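Structure (tokenized):
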């Protein structure tokens, strides 16, 4: 995904669970947005962030990959 598009998403998106800030990160070769507080990773599918709690990947028990 383009860096400019990522920055625009970061300005308007919040974690659906806690309403906190998100960061862009890569996890298992997937792009997405990550909430450090909830430890949830919201993947980006076909340039669209999937911001559903039930679709998020819980990273609290797994080792997280570094974001670019």
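Design, position by position:
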């Amino acid at each position: 995904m383009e860096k400019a598009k990522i920055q625009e998403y970061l300005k308007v998106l919040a974690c659906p669970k806690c309403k906190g800030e998100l960061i862009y990160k890569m996890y298992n070769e997937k792009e997405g947005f990550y909430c450090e507080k909830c430890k949830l990773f919201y993947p980006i599918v076909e340039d669209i962030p999937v911001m559903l709690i039930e679709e998020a990947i819980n990273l609290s028990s797994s080792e997280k990959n570094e974001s670019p």
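Reviewer-requested clarification: The two ends are 12 Å apart (CA to CA). Helices lie at 3-12.
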